[in-house]
């Protein structure tokens, strides 16, 4: 099959069926109140969804890729529309994305923090970088304490900071991460507890007692506060703390959530904007 041809013989699912199945796995009510989740772009033509593309960020390159691969639904982890748009013109890249999706009959759905907070979602995937005896949400939901933001882990066995670094690199597939060591610690210092949150996690992690914070990005003064207060920090870059989940989740989404009624694939052009030189 050529790269630009994702045609298949599946009958597909109508948009309302797709959304029902997505919300059955991760209700949008799990998203944070500030978030913008759900169906963000709806094509003018109601047609069966046969090809679904997963991406962490929806860029113009990713939209072109979706069109070339005949994807009629893009599930973008980060919402491409977050704040209100006053215009939809071709002068701005975010507005061009909206126009090009509609032009190519591509629907856009964003789950964002609903996939963070659900059981088996992004934060649980991050937690799987470690062997642990206990994992629970840092900010549990009142209606179900197994759901919620962040994860607090008690490790099965103590790890040195260096071992934690290597475990995270192996799990995420990253060649490097950044480490800020707590005052008085070194690479051989051991940790027993981890608090983690995908993306920019300080609003969830702040003041949580843990030997290690694990997230995507933090501001300098938040890093300094953590380290001077006795907590080491490992950072991956924002989207690199999330993107690997899509590769692991793709098969489950296709076979379990969608019951093999659509084809699901992960964008090849989606990437973190930061590179290491």
UniProtKB/TrEMBL annotation:
Keywords: Metal-binding
Gene3D superfamilies named among the record's database cross-references: NIF3 (NGG1p interacting factor 3)-like
Any single Pfam family the record assigns to this protein: DUF34_NIF3
SUPFAM superfamilies tied to this protein: NIF3 (NGG1p interacting factor 3)-like
Protein residues bound to a divalent metal cation: 78, 116, 238, 242
The UniProt record lists the keyword Metal-binding: yes
Keyword Ubl conjugation carried by entry: no
Family: Belongs to the GTP cyclohydrolase I type 2/NIF3 family.
Protein name: NIF3-like protein 1
Organism in which the protein naturally occurs: Cryptolaemus montrouzieri
């Amino acid at each position: 099959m050529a790269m630009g041809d994702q045609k298949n013989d599946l009958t597909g699912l109508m948009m309302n069926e797709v959304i029902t199945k997505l919300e059955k796995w991760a209700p949008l009510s799990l998203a944070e109140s500030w978030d913008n989740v759900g169906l963000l772009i709806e094509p003018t033509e109601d047609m069966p969804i046969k090809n679904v593309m997963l991406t962490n960020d929806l860029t113009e390159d990713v939209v072109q890729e979706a069109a070339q691969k005949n994807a009629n639904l893009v599930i973008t982890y980060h919402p491409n529309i977050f704040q209100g748009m006053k215009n939809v013109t071709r002068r701005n890249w975010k507005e061009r994305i909206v126009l090009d999706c509609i032009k190519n009959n591509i629907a856009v759905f964003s789950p964002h923090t609903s996939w963070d907070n659900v059981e088996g979602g992004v934060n649980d995937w991050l937690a799987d970088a470690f062997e642990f005896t206990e994992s629970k949400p840092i900010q549990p939901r009142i209606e179900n304490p197994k759901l919620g933001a962040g994860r607090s882990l008690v490790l099965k066995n103590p790890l040195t900071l260096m071992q934690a670094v290597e475990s995270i690199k192996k799990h995420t597939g990253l060649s490097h991460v950044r480490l800020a060591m707590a005052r008085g610690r070194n690479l051989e210092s051991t940790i027993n507890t981890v608090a983690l949150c995908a993306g920019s996690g300080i609003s969830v992690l702040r003041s949580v007692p843990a030997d290690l914070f694990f997230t995507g990005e933090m501001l300098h003064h938040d890093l300094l506060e953590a380290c001077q207060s006795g907590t080491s920090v490992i950072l991956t870059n924002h989207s690199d703390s999330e993107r690997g989940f899509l590769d692991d989740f793709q098969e489950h989404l296709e076979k379990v959530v969608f019951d093999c009624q659509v084809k699901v694939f992960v964008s090849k052009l989606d990437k973190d904007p930061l590179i290491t030189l």
